[in-house]
Structures are given as C-alpha cells and as structure tokens.
Amino acid sequence: MTDKKPDGADAGDVARPDLPATGWAVLGLLSFGEELSGYDLKKWSDRSLRFFYWSPSFSQIYGELKRLEKAGYVSSRTVAQETGHRDKRVYVITDEGMAAVRRWAREAPVEPPVLKHGVMLRLWLGHLLEDDRMREVLGRHREFAETMRQRAEADAAAARDEAARSGPALVLKWSERFYAAERDLADAMLADLAERDRGRP
C-alpha cells in the first residue's frame, strides 16, 4: 500500500516501510552522509542515541543493516584494512534510503514516550525496603544522572562544531536538561524522605 504524498514532499520520497524504530535509528545515523562500519555506528550511537533513545547492541546494528540493505536503503562494500586486520564492511545510505528516512522523520506519528523507570518502581515498593536502602538507591541514581548530564553536555559541545549535526546538538542539549532534571528529582525525593522521617513519631 502506498501512502499519499504530502504537500511539499520531495519527488523522490517513498512510502514509509514497516521498519522497527531501531532500523530508523540506524538509517538516521547514516543519513548524515558518512560511510560507516557497524563499529562506527555503535560508537556514534553510544555518543548520541543512548542519551534519549537507547544504544543498540552490535548484533542489533548488524541485523538492522542487513534488513536495510535488503530493502535497498543502504549499500555496502568491503574495505581492506591497513593494520593487517581482516577487511571491514562499510555502509552508506542510498537515495531511496534517504527519501524513506526523510519521510519517516516528517510523518511518523508523534507517540508519547514510554516511561520505564526502575528506580521509581523500586521506591514504589518502599514498604519492602529499609530507609537506608531507599536513600542508597536514590543516591546512585543521582550520581548516574549527573554523570550522564556531564557526558551529554560534552557531546553537545562537540556536535555544535559541525554544522551538519545541528539536530544532534539540539537533542543532546535536551538530554543534558533531562538528566539535570533527573538529578534534581532525586534530590527532591531525598528531601521528601527526610521530611517524612521528621514527621514520624
């Protein structure tokens, strides 16, 4: 089934195929125009995607690359290594792949994020935890959030130096603010615990 082309769509746009979100993420990484290996894609996803989506494993990346190549959205070639290691396969987006990911970015439904917050779930079971353990869980989460905030800040600064990556820079700034909020929420929850304890007989 072919979707109706929206007003202003490029002539090369194609109907959006049925790809999983991870497939679109991998194709999106390639949409910046670089020829990348699976290893390169994993490194970049660790520096970018993991702050707001997730960083797929090597096996997931290679699985999606096979799916994308079969669909005609990427092409690949083998490159000899100068270091004596075995040859590596690199991938580049095709015109059809660029049209597909452009259309997906423009027209995919805006879906609410699914919150799966393990720390909140554990605190929800606070009646089964000692107070010190609850504070320890919150403290570790606060440390994690602050570490991620600092990394997002550093990666956003690096991305700002490349005009073609203004989108990733903006999303990394969002990620920096998100993790700052998580850090502050952990602090607020620790304060809530302290207030609750003061109110106990």
TrEMBL record:
It comes from Streptomyces bugieae. It comes from the Bacteria. This is PadR family transcriptional regulator. Residues 26-102 form the Transcription regulator PadR N-terminal domain. InterPro entries: Tscrpt_reg_PadR_N, WH-like_DNA-bd_sf, WH_DNA-bd_sf. It holds the Pfam family PadR.
